Structure formats: structure tokens, C-alpha cells
Amino acid sequence: MSDANPRESIHAIALPKLRELLVEAGHPGYRGAQVLEWVYEKRVDAFEMMTNLPAGLRAWLNDRFAFHILEPIRVQGSKDTTRKFLFRLGDGALIESVLIPASPALYGEDSDRRTLCVSTQVGCAYGCKFCASGLDGWSRNLTPGEIVGQIIRVEALSGERVSNLVFMGMGEPLANYKNLRSALEILNAPWGVGIGARRITISTSGLAPQIRELAEQPMQVRLAVSLHGARDEVRQQIMPVNRKYPLSELLAACEYYVGLKKQRITFEYILIREVNDTLEDAEALVEVARKVDAKVNCIPYNVVEGLAWVRPEEPRQDAFMAVLKRGKVTATIRREKGHDIEAACGQLRRQTLPVQNAAN
Ligand code: SAH
Ligand code: SF4
């Protein structure tokens, strides 16, 4: 929490804890549910608006908690397209969230599925060679209030409800595990945001020990692993994390997750020309995906300014996909052009701050 905001975010407090604090302070515990009803159902943004609470309780809340409202400094896109929100946090740090409407081709014309891609850190320490988020290094973890706050703020700004969440924005969610867990509790709970666990996907670059921890907690969240290489020599070239957790260790953790959760996981695989997109790579991917019965989601690389990688041409992408199909792997490829959601991760922040980029 920044010094400017010493009070705890009201979006970071779970109902059991709030009840406990209320009782300690001499207020009835049932007030906790009323407070959170104002916060998450009625979506007020000030304690004064909680008109069924006694004035003394409102003052107590005001002393202890605050509405840390994320400040939108730029919004790109419109209602029927992907919308990117760039937010400034209390300490001036910038993060982004991306709202993606359902693709009519996949979900039908009137689907009200809306997915929000959220950030979990300012920057990223993992330095994957293809990714914009890590280019400026890592600054800090987001607090649970800042994670939950992204959903609250996007819903307020767009006037729409988010039905699905993906933790694929800036940062490595499993490197901020404790805050992620606290945020997930609030996002999932009926007294909180109330998004079903199966509609929440955590994406990780492959932190094997935390994948095991996530497997052991009861929430049925979905797991996506940024694989991007199915052989150690290829993967470690583009993802330094692979030296710490090589494929054998990562796959063992994935098997553990699948075994406990009884659900399939997804491997994300960016196709980068002549780096990881040869037919030999495709064969290796078939083997790895079949080992853990994972679905594969291929994404043609989105060019990041300042990085040398290139997106393969479509015939090359098709040849890669054909190998997966022959290998009986459930695989899809996302082919939106240009600045689609994948382009968003960490890139909006950089586009907005050319001066800072140059200084770095
Ligand atoms: N740190 C987590 C979550 C954030 S990255 C992780 O690595 O999984 C979310 C996804 O965006 C990852 O699959 C990542 O590999 C992908 N991504 C990053 N840069 C990209 C680019 N230039 N083109 C396409 N996908 C990219
Ligand atoms: Fe970090 Fe994920 Fe980007 Fe790698 S792909 S640098 S882990 S955000």
C-alpha cells in the first residue's frame, strides 16, 4: 500500500475478516454483510452512501478503509471491440486491463460473455524474450485491492458486467501468490464479486511449486501455462524461467494439477518464426500436450517494438497446426489481426510512455 493511502482498500477485505474487525470494535458482526452488499451489489464508492448503517459505523469504516478508485488515464477501443484500460495507481504506477467481448463466431451473436484480462504486478521480473511486460523489469506486486479494483473500475466505466476473468495482463500471477489468493477469494465469493471459479483462468510462465500450491487449494480455477517451447533448448532460449523449472519439472506440476483438479489445462503457444515454429517443435508439442492431456492455444506472435521476433506467415502456421491435428491434440489458433488482446500485455503502457521508454 502506498504512503499516500494508509487506509486499507475496502476491496481487499474478506467478509469473515471484516466481521471479526467489526466485533472487535464493538459493532454487530452482521453489519459486515451489509457493508459488502453496498460495495459489491450496489457498487457505491463512499461510506456516506451506506444509508442503512449508523453514522458511528460509517465513521469507523471511513477511518479504517478507503475506496482506492483506479484512475483511468487512457481507454482504447469501443463497445463491440476489445477495450484497453490504462490505469494509474496511488503511487503513480501504470497497469492495464483489457475487456474482451465474446467473439460471435465462437459464442453466437447474443452471448453476454465478457472477459477481463487483469494485471497482477507492475512490470514483470521473468523477462520472457517476446513479451513487452518484462522489458522495463519488475517494480512491485499489486495488492489484492488493486487486483479486485480493476474489475470494479472496468465495470463502472463500461457499464457492463464481467463474466470471465483471465490473469494474463502484466506480471506473473503466481509470483504474487499471496495477494492473488486474497483477490481470488473476493472475486469468487457470493458476498464479493461473485464470478464462478470455472470462469477464472490463471496464466503462468511455469512456476512449478506455485502450480502445485494452486492445485491444493479448493477453488476450481482454470490453469493456462505459457509454454511457447516444447523442448528445453528452445524454451530456455526465450523463457529464462525454464532454467529454474525445466520442462520435466513443469510438466510434473501440471500433471499434479490435472490429477487433483480433474480438469484439463491449456498450453499457450506463441508462434515465433524460426524460433519455435518448426515441424520438429510441433512434434515435440504433440508429445508434451498428450502427456498431460492439455488443450493447446496457438497465438501468432504479436510484434513488440524493440524486439527482433517475427510472426510466421499463414502457410507456416497452418503446417504447424496440421501436425497438432494429426497428433490428435485439441488445438486452436487465434488469428485476430493487429492489436488484439495478446498485443495488450504490457504494450499499452509502453505505447503511452514513449518518453519513459527512451529513458530506460
Ligand atoms: N505471466 C503470465 C501471465 C501474463 S502473460 C504468463 O506468462 O503466462 C499472458 C500471455 O501473453 C502469455 O501467454 C504470454 O506469453 C503472452 N504474450 C506475451 N507477449 C506476447 C506477444 N508479443 N505476442 C503474443 N502473446 C504474447
Ligand atoms: Fe512476465 Fe508472462 Fe511476460 Fe513472461 S510472458 S515476461 S512471465 S508477463
Task: Walk me through the structure.
This protein has 360 residues and is an alpha/beta fold. It folds into 2 domains: 9-66, DNA polymerase, domain 1; 71-358, Alpha-Beta Barrel (TIM Barrel). It has 15 helices and 14 strands. The protein has helices at residues 15-24, 31-41, 55-64, 104-107, 144-158, 177-188, 208-216, 232-238, 241-244, 247-261, 279-292, 314-326, 341-344, 347-352, 354-359, and strands at residues 8-9, 65-66, 71-76, 83-88, 94-101, 114-117, 121-123, 138-141, 164-167, 200-204, 222-226, 266-271, 295-300, 331-333. α1 crosses α2. Mean pLDDT is 91; it is low at 337-344 and 352-360. The protein binds S-adenosyl-L-homocysteine and iron/sulfur cluster. The site of S-adenosyl-L-homocysteine has 16 residues, from β10 and β12. S-adenosyl-L-homocysteine binds at residues 130-131, 168, 172, 203-205, 226, 268, 270, 299, 301-302, 304, 342, 345.
What key attributes describe this structure?
alpha/beta; DNA polymerase, domain 1; TIM Barrel; two-stranded parallel ribbon; 15 helices; 39% helix; binds S-adenosyl-L-homocysteine
Proportion of residues in extended strands: 15-25%
CATH architecture of the largest domain: Alpha-Beta Barrel
Tally of discrete structural domains: 2
Q: Could you tell me the mean pLDDT? A: 91
Which helices and strands, and how do they pair?
Blueprint lengths: L7 E2 L5 H10 L6 H11 L13 H10 E2 L4 E6 L6 E6 L5 E8 L2 H4 L6 E4 L3 E3 L14 E4 L2 H15 L5 E4 L9 H12 L11 E5 L3 H9 L5 E5 L5 H7 L2 H4 L2 H15 L4 E6 L7 H14 L2 E6 L13 H13 L4 E3 L7 H4 L2 H6 L1 H6 L1
Parallel strand pairs: 1-2, 6-9, 9-10, 10-11, 11-12, 12-13, 13-14
Antiparallel strand pairs: 3-4, 4-5, 5-6, 7-8
Helix pairs in contact: 1-2, 5-6, 7-10, 11-12
